[in-house]
Amino acid sequence: MNPEAWTAVDEYFAERLLERDRGFAALLAANAAAGLPEIDVSPLQGKLLHLLARAMGARRVLEIGTLGGYSTLWLARAVGEGGLVISLEYQLRHAEVARANLARAGVADRVDVRAGAALDLLPKVEARREGPFDLVFIDADKSNQDVYLAWALRLSRPGTVIIGDNVVRDGEVLDADSVNPAVQGIRRFVDLLASEPRLSATAIQTAGAKGWDGFAFAVVD
Ligand SMILES: C[S@@+](CC[C@H](N)C(=O)[O-])C[C@H]1O[C@@H](n2cnc3c(N)ncnc32)[C@H](O)[C@@H]1O
Fold it and tell me: How far apart are CA 71 and CA 139, in angstroms?
């Protein structure tokens, strides 16, 4: 393991491949100033979300877990004018910081940050018939990752892409006896990906500035 090298390689690719978009840097600076934890996706991962959303022509995106809106901004830039990103965030303070960040970045017209527990907000999304979504990004409390996947399916159509973050957790995902609720939530999530006949899924390990982790990627049949 060489985390310094992982970070250096991330920096190399970011320097070569990421546009110098001051919006993203300003957003991360505002998060830091507000004291938010640095648990957003990395810049390269954010751009991957953006490119996936663009490649599939996503116009309606659901995000579970906003923090300060960093991944939200990447997704909002992908859906374009007239598109919509609904993002659910438990911490009122995080939601407020995210709303201000996203307004400053010029995407308030296409982003709806909703404060509350995702398990309270998701039934309302369904009741208001705001789905189906083209893309769902699950990145909140991992102990509920499997429950969010079940909700993502309810709010999907054939072709919807569902991405779940942080599925490797320094390899802890292998520990079937883990007492960590996040690990058990991820393991149930993987079980559901495997057993649900409407889903085709894969998982990719990543090593980089955010350590050793990974994401799962699924398509609804
Ligand atoms: C890893 S961060 C999200 C990072 C963000 N997606 C990004 O990459 O910029 C997880 C967020 O989920 C929120 N969260 C935790 N439990 C939640 C819940 N039950 N419902 C909604 N959000 C929750 C946390 O407050 C935190 O802001």
Answer: 10
Contacts of 37 (CB under 8 A, 6+ apart): 67
pLDDT in tens, 75-100: 999 999 999 999 999 999 999 999 99
Closest protein CA for atom 10 of ligand 1: 140
How many CA atoms does the CB half-sphere of 119 hold within 13 Å? 9
Q: Is the CB of 139 under 6 A from ligand 1?
A: yes
65 alpha carbon – ligand 1 mean position (Å): 3
* CB neighbour list of residue 185: distance below 8 Å, 6 or more residues apart: 141, 142, 143, 144, 145, 146
Q: Is the CB of 62 under 6 A from ligand 1?
A: no
Contact 72, 102 (CB under 8 A): yes
213 touches ligand 1 (CB under 6 Å) = no
pLDDT at 108 over 80: yes
Please identify, by atom number, the ligand 1 atom nearest to the C-alpha of residue 144. Answer: 19
**Would you say 76 and 111 are in contact if contact means Cβ atoms under 8 Å apart?**
yes
pTM: 0.98
What is the C-alpha to C-alpha distance for residues 96 and 72, in angstroms, rounded to an integer? 14
71 Cβ below 6 A of ligand 1: yes
